Amino acid sequence: MSNGDILALDAAVADRLFPFHVVLASDLRVLRVAPVIKRLLPALVPGQYLEHVFEAIRPLTPLTPETIGQLTNTLLILKSRQPPALVVKGQIAPLAADGRMLLLVSPRIADADEMLRLGLTAADFALHDPASEMLVVLQAMRASLMDAELLAKRLRQTRDEALQASKAKSQFLANMSHELRTPLNAIIGFTEMMAAQMHGPLPAKYIDYLGDVKLSGQHLLDLINDLLDLARIEADRFELRPSQFAVGALVEECVRTVTPQTRKKGLTVEIASFDPSLTIDADERAVRQIVLNLLSNAVKFSRQAGRIDIGIVRDPTSHVRISVADNGEGIDPATMRSIFEPFRRGDHRVSDAGGGTGLGLHIAKRLAGLHGGTISIKSRPGEGTTVALLLPAVRVVAVSAPGRQKAP
Ligand SMILES: Nc1ncnc2c1ncn2[C@@H]1O[C@H](COP(=O)(O)OP(=O)(O)OP(=O)(O)O)[C@@H](O)[C@H]1O
Ligand SMILES: [Mg+2]
Question: Ligand 2 is a single-atom ion; what residues have CB below 5 A from it?
């Protein structure tokens, strides 16, 4: 179709094919404006002169009948002189022998927001206009950007709420554990006093009962202490109190602590030869708790007359390793997968391995982590388990010369 044919077209068809066209007289008076342009720029009405409505910003030249001859068939960028601001790009082409011209333009659109601002939709563009395809892409992009933004906002909200809730929970646990510990210590203290028969003899049965009260109280206290530690760790309020201490002595002390239980089960406990001068800089209470957690697991999940082997090794290059190996029931793969998760326990109905909360290993791992260390675990179901605390070499402050190693 030649430009001239546009005049012959039915107006509706012309508008559909060329939604952004303006017909100009030879003196650049506006004769006809396609409806979309009319909507975008209400000031552009028939009778107006092109130069009153637009200025050419490329090429920078006045839009006059004298200059227009050089401007036909070159790319023009026009900017409306009055608000609303509208920048269009297009061409002027001669149309008819009487000097009429056709200005074919389309709005210059940088992004989908601009589209929205201009109130344009895909329907405003001619089917052949590449801008219509671009518009579809832009609108799709904008929609997915908005979706992504909304999603990110929701995620941020959820994360903030979760953090808030988790902080509140940790705070509650910390306070509650603290409040529970005080009266519980009193209960245990008074029970011990009564069992000692400080104010006169008690029937043997009552002494028995007091033993049970104390045991239950102690169990509850251990649980509360675990919860308190966990709450502090979760709330990032667990402060390490580092000091220098000999690893071997600490492990021996832990072994003594569990002696009543190991005796009861007839277990053999052995600490392999170690360097007694191996001293580390760490939170002694935390390391004691880790070792006790590993030991109490080994005892709990051992069979009668089983054995527990403890190793204290300083790897010359990397770490200090305190390992506790038992030949007990072992850990099935399903339990192993989530063994460090809090409150996670294996199925011990068969072996009846005694109670537990499922916090021991989780706390041990977190405490090790606070020292820059970790807990490693290896197990063969039915054969036994080796759990080890690994502390980084930087924690070592003293170690005797090689050859001075001796058994405890
Ligand atoms: N030495 C081990 N032998 C066999 N199973 C073990 C051993 N150590 C840990 N487990 C398994 O890992 C689970 C989690 O151990 P963890 O110490 O965290 O909890 P728990 O001993 O059950 O309870 P808690 O330590 O809080 O009293 C145990 O319930 C058990 O199934
Ligand atoms: Mg345990």
Answer: 297, 360
